[in-house]
Amino acid sequence: MGIRKFLGWVMVLALWSGAPANAALKIDITQGNVEPLPIAVLDFVSEDGVGMKLAQVVTADLERSGLFRPIDRAAFIESQVDVNVRPRFRDWRLVNALALVTGRAIRQNDGRLRVEFRLWDVVAQQQMTGLQFFTTPENWRRISHLVADAIYERLTGETGYFDTRIVFVSETGPKNKRVKRLAIMDQDGFARSELTDGRALALTPRFSPTAQEITYLSYYRNKPRVYLLNIETGQQEVVGDFPGMTFAPRFSPDGQKIVMSLERNGNSNIYTMDLRTRETRRLTSSLAIDTAPCYAPDGGQIVFESDRMGTQQLYIMEADGKNVRRISYGEGRYATPVWSPRGDLIAFTKTYKGRFLIGVMKTDGSGERILTEGFHNEGPAWSPNGRVLAFFRESKGADGGPKLWTVDVTGYNEQPVAVEGYASDPAWSPLIR
Amino acid sequence: MPGLPASRWLPSKIAGANNPVIASRDISASLGLHVVLALVIGFWTPVMTSLDTSDALLPVEIVTVDEFTRLMRDKPKEEAEKKPSAAKPAPPIARETAPPPPAPAEAMPLDKPLDKPLEAPLPEPKRVPEKTIAEPVEKATPIRQLRPVARPAPPKPKPVLDVSQIRALLNKTPDTPTASEPVAEDEVVSEKIRLTLNEIDAFRTQMRRCWNPPSGALNAEDLIVQVRVSLAPNGMISAGPKVMNRAKLGDPFFRAAAESVLRAIRRCQPFKMPPEKYAAWRDIELKFDPGKMLGG
Questions:
Q1: Chain B residues with beta carbon closer than 8 angstroms to that of A84
Q2: Which chain A positions have a beta carbon within 8 Å of B195's beta carbon?
Q3: How many domains is chain B partitioned into structurally?
Q4: N or C, which end of chain A has less CB nearby within 10 Å?
């Protein structure tokens, strides 16, 4: 065949595949309504009132995330809908709901509680997810958090974080004589219990990736030392036998190591200790103060703070201590870097012009954004999905003290955490699942 | 013409094979065609390569929301089955998917045994975990007492002027909504009737009010959703909306984004458009790009 004929075929094919079936109007939409998604959560049908409590906890979880706007129940046309009946979507569009949650809770003959729920897309008029859970009845709060997680995950694509806990330092007594205990609670502030008795000062708790262990700083013979605490058994132990003070501990992502600072003769360096072999390894050897180390979620790198170039700044190194490079270059001092579990951002505390700010930057130091600022904000800790930061905010004055807060990574959803009394140094558990 | 066997395994969009070209008896032309096809697949539409992985899961046709809802329905069950093998302490909760609800039309008369649809396909999970996690349970904590604390009613104590917040808000809703949007290239002339820029902006404004994009995905640029919809003269949807870049529907972030787009279009109808220019807006291709609003 002739080359011309061949080219002809090429042309025909090119035209065919390039042109749309019929010309359509093309429009780019780059602006939307960035508002929380309106959702109606109905009381779960139940015989003993637990269904109402379940719905309330689910509603509170979703609302606190800042991504959902639960619709006021007063607007509901029906207050309960059987979980096996298709809702009357038109009614729910009237109250401007985009999503609807129905459910029921049943006590089974074996004594367990069975909770079922369905999430409906009101506009598309179809089910988005439907799950059921079994548990002992006193565990209903966890079910609520699991239901809220499932709704959150289905509607945002993001992993949920409601079925998690926060360990923190509970502070009591006058400002100059504070008693500091470790305490733990659900992320919504409920189910609180104290983990240490308060005789020894406890600071900077950090969760192990397994969620059953905590590493923290306490005092042993008046010397700060890094401890391990099993939150199930209450068993404690000192990490490593170092001549100087150890502090700022944190687990490696695989839970096998602890990275921390060791102070000697006025300067501090970063060490790791393997929890199985008990071997320690020195990672930095500067004459400055290197501290607050935190692993990247893949374990390959460590971010830390150092004043090796004069002021406190953030640095990243390989997990073996090599290739140290500075990443923070903004005005002010940077401290307490924490790598996001998603790997994309590093949260930090920044002091600038006498104020304490919490912000995030990309891992190369670019894209710095301040999420919250004020008289004293400190101790950022990531939620396990990397969407929310917990931190503490100290109030001024003789009676002032720290309180726990959370802020969304966009910076515009800031919420107090419901904890009685003063609390500082929050650390978020991994997902309990 | 359905002559080319290749069209059986090629994604329908690429199967330009349906072209009468195929009828040629000239073998070398056919060879050339295959070379070109390979080029088209290999270079012109690199996006298509991502279809390879998803095709195992998704049908070749464009998948609408209800379809992929169905696809996903079984997934949590798999997760639940994986759980016991994990070395972690068994969570005190078994989790199963509930089957789809009864068919829409019947609205399920209440005298039917409602328990049946849920219980029949779901055998009791074998690994009924006794409560093993020694969670600090707040047995003594009265819920009544704590509840008001958990949901603080008063507005959050905000600084009067919070720069970071203002910044965040500015990022999201610029004062000049359309100034930065690409305008000139958006229109495609359709039978010599075209919408004016004002008319297109009016459409955008309608769409903007209805679109509630999910925020916070890692790469907002990965969440661009392309949708095709056909409208009737009264501004109601006559066909679609259909997601065109459906290759990523397996990704939960993209799926959430795509669903938000489909909701927006359905919610927004009827669209107010100039009736005399119906030919120009009967078929619309929309590209929803949340990148400029999110993340920051």
A1: 101-102, 108, 114, 117-118
A2: 25
A3: 2
A4: N
What was the pLDDT predicted at A32? 80
Instruction: Give the Å distances, CA to CA, from A44 to A100, A104, A118, B169.
Output: 12, 4, 10, 36
A118 part of contact set with chain B, CB < 8 Å: yes
pLDDT for res B70: 34
Is the pLDDT at A276 greater than 60? The verdict is yes
Domain housing A256: 165-428
Which of residues A427 and B134 earns the better pLDDT score?
A427
Res A412: pLDDT? 78
**A153: which residues sit within 8 A by CB, 6+ positions away?**
A159, A160, B252
Please judge whether A157 and B251 are an interchain contact, meaning their C-beta atoms are less than 8 angstroms apart. yes
Contacting B residues, span 176-235, partner chain A, CB-CB under 8 Å: 177-178, 180-182, 186-190, 195, 200, 203-204, 207-218, 228
Mean pLDDT on B87-113: 39
Same structural domain, A170 and A151 = no
Domain finish residue from A94, A126, A156: A156
C-beta separation of B213 from B257 below 8 A: yes
Size of interface A-B (CB pairs under 8 A): 320
Query: B105-120 burial string, b = 16+ CB within 10 Å, else e?
Result: eeebeeeeebeebbee
What is residue A301's three-state secondary structure?
Answer: strand
B100 touching chain A per CB within 8 A:
yes
- From chain A, the residues in CB contact with B29 under 8 A are 1, 5-6, 9
Where among A122, A156, A190 does a domain terminate?
Answer: A156
In a domain, A1, yes or no: no
pLDDT for B72 beyond 60: no
> Given a cut of 50, is residue A398 above it in pLDDT?
yes
Number of domains within chain A: 2
Q: Residue A357: its pLDDT value, please?
A: 93
Complex ipTM, two decimals?
0.73
Q: Is there a single domain that holds both residue B64 and residue B39?
A: no
Token pair for residue A167? 């360990």
Average pLDDT, chain B: 53
Spatial contact of A117 and A83, defined as CB atoms under 8 Å apart? yes
Q: Is the peptide bond before B270 cis (omega within 30 degrees of 0)?
A: yes
Tell me if B76 and A131 make a contact (CB, 8 A cut-off): yes
In a domain, A271, yes or no: yes
- Interface membership of B271 toward A (CB under 8 Å): no
pLDDT at A190 over 60: yes
pLDDT attached to residue A8: 53
Tokens of B37: 């096809």
How much is the average pLDDT of A126-131?
91
Both A141 and A191 in one domain: the answer is no
Inside any domain, residue A407: yes
Query: Is A417 among the domain residues?
Result: yes
Residue A30's pLDDT is: 83
- Please report whether residue B82 resides in a domain: no
Contacts of B279 in chain A (CB under 8 A): none
| Whole-number average pLDDT of chain A | 87
Is B206:B272 a contact under the CB 8 Å cutoff? Answer: yes
Interface of A with B in 28-57 (CB under 8 A): 28-35, 37, 53, 56
CATH code, A80: 3.40.50.10070
Which residues are bridge partners to A218 per DSSP?
A: A202, A225
Q: Which of B151, B227, B229 to mutate to test the interface with A (most CBs of A within 10 A)?
A: B151
Strand order in A402-408's β-sheet? A377-382, A388-394, A402-408, A414-416
- Segment 362-421 of chain A within 8 Å of chain B by CB: 369-374, 387, 409-412, 414-416, 418, 420
Domain coverage including residue B17: 6-44
For B93, which of A6, A143, A414 is closest by C-beta distance? A143
Strand partners, A161: none
Q: What value does the mean pLDDT take over residues B241-263? A: 85
